[in-house]
Fold this sequence. Notes:
Elements: H1 18-37, H2 44-50, H3 55-64, H4 79-82, E1 90-91, E2 94-103, E3 106-113, E4 119-125, H5 133-149, E5 159-163, E6 166-172, E7 176-178, H6 179-186, H7 202-221, E8 224-225, E9 234-237, E10 242-244, E11 251-252, H8 274-277, H9 286-302, H10 312-320, H11 335-344, H12 356-367, H13 376-401
Antiparallel strand pairs: 1-2, 2-3, 3-4, 4-6, 5-6, 7-9, 8-11, 9-10
Amino acid sequence: MTESLHDLPAEPGPDASAAEVEAFLEEVLFHYLLRREEGQSPDVDAYLTRYPGQAERIAALMLGHDGAPLVADDPGTTTRGRRRRWLLDRLGPYQIVLLAASTARGHVYRARRDGATEDVALKVLRRVDRMDPREFERFQREARTVARLGVPGVVPVLDVGEDEGAVYYAMPWIEGATIAEIIRILRGETRAGAFDPAGLDLRARLRLGARVARIFAAVHERGVLHRDIKPSNIMIDAGGEALVLDFGIARNLEDSGLTRTSDPPLGTPLYMAPELLTGLSEEADQASEVFALAATIWELLTLTSLRRADDRARFFADVERDAPDLAALPAGASPRLAALMKRALDREPRRRLRSMEELARGLEALADDDDPVDRTGRRRLIILSLLLLLAAMLVAAWWWSR
């Protein structure tokens, strides 16, 4: 890990300005997050050893960026609370409340517009003057795409702006948890916050998957592909409603300005369709989106990832499999559920479910069953009981006829 830090800048000296320190910290955070997104496990201690003068700030950022946003005004003594406001106090007409999340492309803040009574989520792309123009284009495209979609279940854009080189857009602040956070809660890795998934039995998870599939079906009807469907981009609010986030690499099928050369397939490898990872297809389509959502639903049902990310060879071995290991589904799961997941996650696009509508209908049918678990054994027991009853009746009839 140490050698991989050689391309990072030197630590700012005692005479460095606040802007220089901010730029330095952002560069270090970007370096760390990029490696996380590539599936690596960067050693936080290596960064702290390299930069002892900024170790406290770096630790607060790196150790807190994966947690859920605070739902209380007082951040207390949590890691996320300690890094509150460290980057910004204001942005345009917005007062920053706290830094909620950080990614390789920017930051998400909880903020409040002057004179308003409700908080918003500000998605901010920093240092526009030094970034790849394509990243800036994707950010602008996300704001435009979401603003014109008007699909229930897609968090709307409320405002778009720029302030001293920082571009941003505002969306409603949602209390809840992403599916990624819900999975960690169900695994016992973290505690529940605004949304407690304790009541999410198999039927509830199927209904949740169906609702999300309906949202994406509506998005597809408007000619838009999300292209980065994964657990962290789907949120469940405090009332249990599903919401879709992050259209940063979405593609409008009617936008002729986006070509294969300038806008190659993107996404998160753990959830990307095999044809995109192996190069058999250069373009995402509805079938590849179905695969990504099915992989997300699979993880919600089984609490395990469809692919192993700890080793490159094992990862691609999982990619090459024709179908998932259906034995990983919950004990007693209906054979119809196994069949649906097999079709939705088929390696071959031509054999896969072709639309979100088809996936939604399948999940709804399973959720509407009297019991979405395997009823084969129960049917056999009922049939056996009836046969025994019939045999007893025949024996009794024979006895009385003697």
